[in-house]
Design a protein that fits this description.
Layout lengths: L7 H6 L3 H6 L5 H25 L6 H12 L4 E3 H7 L4 H13 L3 E6 L2 E9 L1 H21 L6 H24 L1
Antiparallel strand pairs: 1-3, 2-3
Helix pairs in contact: 3-7, 4-7
């Protein structure tokens, strides 16, 4: 979807030209930033995923391992894990099934909640996490962090932090 101002001919021939005129189109500067953000996000995700392939792992698998490794007792309710990884419950369930088959995670019943399930990081899953994490961190550093000065890192965090907080708040209301 293009977020720049449409050509004048497009607006004048459109039945909704008053709505078009009220649209706060991005300036060239804003458009440049938006497009760079999209490109970096997609390319970085692609590259980090490629570099996890030799470990037989997808980027979503790695994210689940990270979240579970940081959770108390290395386990989390499936609904909370879906929220933390921004996945639908259905998609997460299929992914956990694959990871369970690989021995990385185990589903466990929640005491006192017959419908609730935990995803628990197994010992082989923990060992995989410890083996893969150093390579992943080197990739993040090589393809992202090392391209910024300490001052730029601080400025980027200051700029992106409020956007992330805003989006987390919206997600909490949904």
């Amino acid at each position: 979807m293009d977020t720049q101002t449409p050509h004048a001919a497009d607006v004048s021939s459109s039945p909704s030209s008053s709505a078009e005129e009220e649209t706060p189109w991005l300036t060239a500067r804003e458009q440049r930033l938006w497009r760079a953000h999209l490109e970096v996000s997609k390319l970085l995700d692609y590259q980090l995923g490629r570099e996890l392939q030799p470990h037989g792992m997808a980027i979503n698998d790695y994210e689940i391992l990270v979240v579970l490794s940081e959770a108390p007792e290395r386990r989390m309710r499936m609904t909370d894990l879906a929220t933390a990884t921004l996945q639908s419950k259905s998609r997460l369930s299929h992914q956990i099934t694959r990871m369970e088959t690989a021995g990385l995670v185990l589903r466990q019943e929640c005491p006192g909640d017959r419908r609730g399930l935990y995803a628990h990081l197994t010992e082989p899953g923990w060992e995989t996490m410890q083996k893969v994490a150093p390579d992943h961190v080197r990739s993040v550093r090589r393809h992202f962090i090392d391209h910024f000065s300490p001052e730029q890192l601080d400025a980027m965090y200051a700029a992106l932090g409020p956007v992330a907080e805003h989006l987390r708040d919206l997600r909490g209301r949904a």
